[in-house]
Specification:
By secondary structure, this protein is of the alpha+beta class. It is built from seven helices and 13 strands. A hairpin with a 3-residue loop joins strand 4 and strand 5.
């Protein structure tokens, strides 16, 4: 039996998770094309991320990112299209692969990418009690992935631990960079609507954002902004805290402008 939903068709299927609002309702699956949505695994300002199962032409589990209901404004749609194209341009073991893209019957865009069953890089390092050298080796792989994106003229603009997931592959830690939702083309426009940006809007995560990205609303930045964010992540990996913690009482748009190498940083760890 099939019915319609805001996401796509719904089918009774024992293999699917219950998506009904009431426990008494039958277990159903929301189906978008060949993808059966199983579980909501993440939400952001732009979209939802679902664990889904692809059943044809191959059978595999994937991550499906979908524009949130009620969020299909011109601005969000342009950024989503940019993300979809950015992922398609890249091919690196440290960057989550994109498999497919499309839209629901209601016009909500989605893309399907490699499902990364990992945890944030900081949590992984702490959980497995990695040494400083092991953390550096893992971080180098992340840097190589970012370098690849820069060679493709793509900025990430939101590098942070939750966008760098690590899982064990053949007994070794493997990082994957996800969520190029704020990606910006350095030398070319990814889609016709990429350059549409609301004046003054700050895109990204302030704690990991370079001062120039905060000052310019992300419009006047280059690869160095991603390098800055990587530096903040590395500091957190080695010290166990954000360098800005001493300034949490200040507005975020003020303490982001404090010089990175402030005296406070050296007090976090005697090794620095």
């Amino acid at each position: 039996m099939t019915s319609e939903s805001p996401l796509g068709s719904r089918e009774n299927d024992e293999a699917c998770s219950t998506t009904a609002a009431q426990p008494s309702e039958p277990a159903v699956c929301v189906v978008i094309g060949p993808y059966y949505l199983l579980e909501l695994i993440g939400e952001g300002g732009m979209g939802e991320v679902w664990l889904a199962e692809q059943r044809e032409p191959v059978r595999r589990r994937v991550a499906l990112k979908l524009i949130k209901a009620g969020m299909d404004t011109r601005e969000v749609m342009a950024r989503f299209q940019s993300e979809r194209q950015a992922l398609a341009l890249m091919d690196h073991p440290a960057i989550a692969k994109v498999f497919d893209a499309g839209s629901t019957p209601e016009g909500r865009p989605y893309f399907v990418m490699e499902f990364v069953a990992g945890i944030p890089i900081t949590a992984y390092c702490d959980k497995h009690k990695l040494t400083t050298w092991q953390r550096m080796e893992l971080f180098v792989q992340v840097c190589e992935g970012v370098q690849h994106s820069h060679q493709k003229a793509i900025l990430h603009r939101d590098l942070k631990p939750s966008n760098i997931l690590v899982s064990d592959v053949d007994g070794k830690p493997m990082p994957k960079i996800i969520d190029f939702g704020l990606a910006k083309a350095i030398s070319h426009r990814l889609t016709a609507g990429t350059m549409y940006t609301r004046m003054g809007a700050i895109l990204g995560t302030v704690e990991y954002m370079s001062p120039e990205q905060a000052d310019s609303a992300g419009e006047d930045i280059d690869t160095r902004s991603d390098v800055y964010s990587l530096g903040v992540v590395l500091y957190q990996l080695l010290v166990g805290a954000l360098w800005s913690m001493g300034y949490q009482s200040m507005p975020s748009w003020e303490w982001i402008k404090i010089p990175t190498f402030s005296p406070y940083m050296a007090t976090r760890d005697s090794r620095l």
